[in-house]
Every structure is written in C-alpha cells, then in structure tokens.
Amino acid sequence: MFPTPHAALTPNTFAFEALPLVAPTGFREYDARWLFPKDLNLMGVQALGLGLGTLVHELGVRPDIVTGHDFRAYSASIKLALIAGMQAAGLRVKDIGLCLSPMAYFGQFALDCPCVAMVTASHNDNGWTGVKMGAERPMTFGPAEMGRLKEIVLSGAFRYRDGGAYQFVPDFAQVYLDDLVSRAKPLTRRLKVVAACGNGTAGAFAPALLERLGCEVVPLDVEADATFPRYNPNPEDMAMLHAIADTVTATGADVGLGFDGDGDRCGVVDEQGHEIFADKVGVMLARDLSLQHPNARFVVDVKSTGLFASDPELKARGVETDYWKTGHSYIKRRVNELQALAGFEKSGHFFFNAPVGRGYDDGLLTAIAVLEMLDRNPGKILSQLYAALPTTFGSPTMSPHCADEEKYGVVERVTARFQDMHARGEALGGAAITDLVTVNGVRVSTADGTWGLVRASSNKPELVVVVESPVSRARLEEMFRAVDAVLRENPQVGAYNQTI
C-alpha cells in the first residue's frame, strides 16, 4: 500500500525520498498550490493522483481524464508523478503535453474526457506548482470536491483499481488553435498587437494565434524562461502592465495583450499605453456583446467595478448582472448555472458561454473578443471605447501578506468589525456605511458609491484588497486608508505587494 502522506519532511534526508510529503495548506478553495519541493515532493504528487482517481470513482464519473503541464522547470516531472498515481487509481489518462490550462479544458470536449488535471501554478512565482482539476466539464472543483480530495489524500484512503491507461496525444496544440481560429470572425482591418507572455507558457501559443488572425504581432517576453526574469506572467501585476504599456507606445501598436502563466487570463493596454483593469475591459465587452446578443446576462466577481450595475448603456438594454464569489471555479459554475453569456473577473479570468465559447476561462479567446470589439468599431480606437465608460477611480488588486493559517480568521474579524461599525452608525473614510456584501469576504460601500473589498486569497498566503470610487481619486485614497486602518488592527497582516 502507498504510504500515508506526511505534512512535513526535511529535504535531503532518506525520509524525504522514501515518503510522500503533502502540506495540508496546498489544498485551496478550488485548486491546489504548493511550493515545490518545500511543501510537496514527487511521492506527494503520486498521492495526489491516487486521491484524485479515488475521488473520480467515488463521484461516479467515467474515469477518462486529460492532463497537461505548464512551462516550468519541474512541471513535466510533477505531471508524470501525478499520472502514475492516477493510473494506479484506475484513470485512463490522455496526456496533451505542454499546454495552457484552457487547452486542457478544451481537451475535455475534443477528446471526450469528463475529467481534467492541469499541472500549473498559474501566475504564482517560480517555485510554486499546483493542479487545476475537474470532473464535470466545463467546471472545475469547488470547496466541496477540494475538501473531500484533501480528506482522501491526507488520510491515505486510496482505492487502487485496474484499468488505468496512458495515451500521449501528439500535436494537440494545433487542434486547439484551429478551433479558436474557426470560432473567430475574420478581422476587417490589420491590427498591430503587442503580445506579452512574461516568459511563460503562453509564449508558445499566443503569438502564433494572433498572427493567424491577421494581426501584426509585436512579441514581448515570449521566450521560454521559467525563472520569469522580468516579472511574473500576471496581467494584474503592474510591472507586467507597465512593460506592455512601454512597448505599445514605442511601437505604435493598436493594443497590448498580456497573458498569464497558464494562459487562462488576458490583460489589456490601450494604444496610448494606458493599462485598463480587467473589470473595465469586462464592461466594454459587456456593452459590445449585449449589442450582438439581446437579453444578455453576465456574472462578475465581487472585486469588480460597480459599473456593471450602474452603466447607463447596460441599464438601457436591460442587461442583468450577478455579482458572485471571486475565483475561477465559482464564476465558471455560476455562469453555467445561470446560463449567462459571459462571466468577468477583475483578475482577468473571462468565461464565454455559448455561442461565443464553451463556458471555461481562456485568455486567448478573451484576446479574440477584444480584437473583434475593436473590429466592430472601425471608427474608434481602444482609448475612445474606454473613455465612453462613466468615470470611476479604481485600484489594482492589492495583496498584503497573511499566512494561510491566519487569513480566513483575519477576514472574519474584519467583516465583524465593519458590521459593528455599520450597526453603530460609525463613518468609514469620512462617510456613512450604506451596504455590506459578505458573499465572499466583505465589500463595504458608502452613500456616494465608494466601496472597499477585503477577502482571503484562494491560492496564496495573502489577503486581497480592492477599492473604487465614482467620485474622485481623493475619495479612492480615503477609502483605502480607512480599510487599511481596519486591517492593521490585525498584526497578522503584512506588507502589500503593490498599493495605489
């Protein structure tokens, strides 16, 4: 029998090579993330594969699974260890090799596999690894499935089964790119596009797709380098956005597009070099798509701008928007439950349902949607489409450090603090609290429409803070200082990765 995993082992010891290491904190709300090999060794990955196979059979799902890996120095070895465990638990594995997460999701449809296990740490720093999993296409696991997987793996409650198999699927990237091109509408003008990939996986695929669409491509950091020497491939990271902006202005490009480490997100910079936060890109796309698809409905996460509810154009068309929990699995599931046309996250995860897409997040499909929006407005440049939105002042996503073991408790205390302030009629940032939304962390709003959000990151030892004001930059900063002051009542909260 395979050994029960250990929560901690010391590297460079016999025990580390003889026993599985799986730190419990790696099981997140909707996927798994560990520092490798500090918190997870290869035997631990085998245990994860065994646990996943055990869970798939427990769920009564046909045991066919597609798997692939992102571009990191260790991802291929982690995938092979995962495959060994999945086969031992009776899963029939189809391996598509180096790929983007949406390519693996596409594989569930193209290869007729109900299940997926994508080895990726997404945009996390070099040294992180993880797995995005699902057993009900196009959805990925949520808290219930991740909680049960954690129980199985950490207790060693594996079920071995015969029937496991392995098949490598060659040239699958071409099938995926062909499908995207077939779904795209031909562009009527040649657009000059900066394609930024942060030296991550998307560099192998995104520039080629854009060229096939007829764009003039300006490649930026598309060369493979798993150390991510310039910045993390993360379109929420201002360092990446600034690098895109500099290249756009230097080359006279029409738009800059930035793809994260596993290609399921896309960031946007206009032709003037202005970074457009993803939630505002979502409003622009909602305007565009609601013209093409009357009675459109959208889902957005609680980090997103209030414009989805207040934008005059969307209101005039009767567009309904549902604010929901942050997280690719949450929004993906909500989009499918409500049969919404699309879902938008401030992080840049965009989910396009039929007839645009298949319901999963795909940064390359998002890029196509942005280019088609530009093409449908031949008399306008991107900055003009953005300027047509009502003005709001918003922050980037800001993440103060907070240990995984502490972050949820901190959010509970912060939520209780805001609820108490509301009940007592205390002001926040010089204004009365008018509303609290606690579907995911706490989003606190004041009478002038200014709001701030605090939630726990689902995949890193951090909190997430976002603020927005429709009034002024000064009100934005005032709200940030007020929210941060409440956060600082908790000594577990550390420094921010970036602030306004």
UniProtKB/TrEMBL annotation:
One example GO MF annotation: metal ion binding
Biological processes per GO annotation: carbohydrate metabolic process
Domain called Alpha-D-phosphohexomutase alpha/beta/alpha: residue spans: 26-156, 176-273, 279-392
Name of a matching Pfam family: PGM_PMM_III
Keywords, in A-Z order: Isomerase, Magnesium, Metal-binding, Phosphoprotein
Alpha-D-phosphohexomutase C-terminal domain boundaries: 427-484
Cofactor(s) needed by this chain: Mg(2+)
Similarity remark: Belongs to the phosphohexose mutase family.
Protein name: Phosphoglucomutase
Lineage summary: Bacteria, Pseudomonadati, Pseudomonadota, Alphaproteobacteria, Hyphomicrobiales
